[in-house]
Automatic annotation (TrEMBL):
Cellular component terms (Gene Ontology): cytosol
Name of the protein in its database record: Thymidine kinase
Gene from which the chain derives: tdk
Source organism of the structure: Paenibacillus dendritiformis C454
E.C. code: 2.7.1.21
Record Gene3D superfamilies: 3.30.60.20, P-loop containing nucleotide triphosphate hydrolases
Length: 190
């Protein structure tokens, strides 16, 4: 029975490397996978899942109007698993498409991404993955400033000060994001 998996974590919790690892494990057993990533995130070249430790591989891009269910349905050949990186940027409609891949095509789907944005609100994709996924798992990483578990993402502007409001998605800015615990989110030692 295929299932919809949601694996979320703060920045730098190894989500992209996990996508590459899962894909490798499937392919080692001659089980083909389809890898998608959001067109929103172009930090390291559009059309790749890339990890900070240097590994990367091509991925199909999900634009706002992409029908993921249709792309998987029309794919010629077997698909053992569908992997989606940056799943927070999916729309509600696209998360529902993932549920149809699981329920109607009987293909497992694993979505990886952030849960909360820098304002500590849910992304649209995260919201609906939390509501619709069969299995939800947290990917853990440590706070940038202390030893606690990081559960939030702190945005720091050009002036080195934390930012708590503004547009959810910033493209091409110079701001930085840090994985932080709740305490350091509100009181970063900056
Ligand atoms: Zn902390």
């Amino acid at each position: 029975m295929a299932q919809l998996y949601y694996r979320y974590g703060a920045m730098n919790s190894g989500k992209s490397i996990e996508v590459l690892k899962v894909a490798h494990n499937y392919e080692e057993q001659n089980k083909p996978v389809l890898i998608f990533t959001s067109a929103v995130d172009n930090r390291d070249g559009v059309g790749y899942v890339s990890s900070r430790i240097g590994l990367k591989r091509p991925a199909r891009l999900v634009h706002a109007d992409t029908n993921i269910f249709r792309e998987v349905s029309l794919h010629g050949g077997p698909v053992s698993c569908v992997l989606v990186d940056e799943v927070q940027f999916l729309t509600k409609e696209q998360v529902l498409q993932l549920t149809r891949i699981v329920d109607e095509l009987d293909i497992p789907v694993m979505g990886f991404g952030l849960k909360n944005d820098f304002r500590n609100e849910l992304f649209e994709g995260s919201h609906y993955m939390l509501l619709y996924a069969d299995k939800i798992e947290e990917m853990k990483t440590i706070c940038w400033f202390c030893e606690r578990k990081a559960t939030m993402n702190l945005r720091v502007g050009d002036d080195g000060k934390p930012v708590y409001s503004g547009e959810q998605i910033q493209i091409g800015g110079n701001e930085r994001y840090y994985p932080v615990c709740r305490r350091c989110y509100f009181h970063p030692p900056l």
